From TrEMBL:
This is Organic hydroperoxide resistance protein. Belongs to the OsmC/Ohr family. Pfam families: OsmC. It comes from the Bacteria.
Length: 137
């Protein structure tokens, strides 16, 4: 495997912490979400992961669209990342990816969505590790 790029981010302080990328572009305070006893107005790991996964997923969908001759430039991926409690000290993520491809019938959109999920690097990284539902909408 040929390494094309490496992102470097330093994290401090856990859920009520700070992250900063080596290039300084990303420099954020994080807080637990209000639903987990935190504060509104801050981002959290699940939001960051959902955003990164959604963008990466759309890249994979773009490849599928090119292969199939379908314009996916207006497609959206709404990624839901849930933080779930398994036991008193154990937690697990789960996710749903809601894919909308304007002008494409739902059956075709679902096939394309599933194909993109097979190829997306974030989807590959989570495959077999967390529950993921991919749904054309």
């Amino acid at each position: 495997m040929k390494k094309l790029y490496t992102a470097v981010v330093t994290a401090k302080g856990g859920r009520d912490g700070h992250i900063k990328s080596s290039d300084g572009v990303l420099d954020l305070d994080l807080k637990a979400p209000k639903a987990m006893g935190g504060e509104d107005g801050f981002t959290n790991p699940e939001i960051l992961f959902a955003g990164a996964w959604g963008i990466c997923y759309l890249g994979a969908l773009g490849s599928i669209g090119k292969r199939d001759g379908v314009d996916v430039s207006e497609a959206t991926a709404e990624v839901h990342v849930s933080f779930n409690q398994e036991s008193e000290t154990s937690y697990q993520l789960s996710a749903e990816i809601h894919v909308h491809i304007p002008g494409v019938v739902i059956e075709k959109a679902q096939k394309m969505a599933d194909a993109a999920h097979k190829g997306c690097p974030y989807s590959k990284a989570t495959r077999g590790n967390i529950d993921v539902l991919v749904k054309a909408v």
